[in-house]
Amino acid sequence: MFTEMIPEVGHFALVIALLMAAVQAIMPLAGAATRRPLWMAYGRPMAAGQFLFLLIAYGCLTASYMLDDFSVANVANNSNTMLPWYYKLSAVWGNHEGSVLLWSLMLAGWGFVASIFSRQLPRDMVARVMGVLGAVSVGFLLFVLVTSNPFDRLLPNMPQDGADLNPLLQDFGLVVHPPMLYMGYVGFSVVFAFAIAALLGGRLDAAWTRWARPWTNIAWAFLTVGIALGSWWAYYELGWGGWWFWDPVENASLLPWLTGTALIHSLAVTEKRGSFKSWTVLLAIATFSLSLMGTFLVRSGVLTSVHAFANDPARGFFILMLLAITVTLSLLVFALRAPRVSHKVGFNWLSRDALLLINNILLVIMTVTVLLGTLYPLILDSLGLGKISVGPPYFNALFVPLMAVTSIFMGLGPVARWKRMAAKELYTKLWLAGVVALVLGALIPVFYGPEWNVWVALGMLMALWIVLPILRDIWDKTRNARSFGAGLKKLSLTYWGMVLGHLGVAFTIVGVAVVSHYNIERNVRMGPGDSVEVAGYHFTMTELSSRRGPNFLADTAEIEVQRGENGRQFTMQPEKRLYLATGMPMTQVALRAGFFRDLYVAMGEDLGDGSWAMRIQHKPLVRWLWLGGLLMAAGGLLAVADKRYRRTRVRQQKYASENTGASSSNRASKEALA
Amino acid sequence: MTPKRKQKMFVILGLVSLTAIAVGLTLYALRSNINLFFSPVQIAQGNAPIERTIRAGGMVKEGSVSRDPDSLNVEFKVTDYVDDLDVYYSGILPDLFREGQGVVVVGQLQADGRLRADEVLARHDENYMPPEVAQALEEAGYKPADFQAKAAEVGKRLEAKGVPQASDY
Question: What is the ipTM of this complex?
Answer without folding.
Answer: 0.76
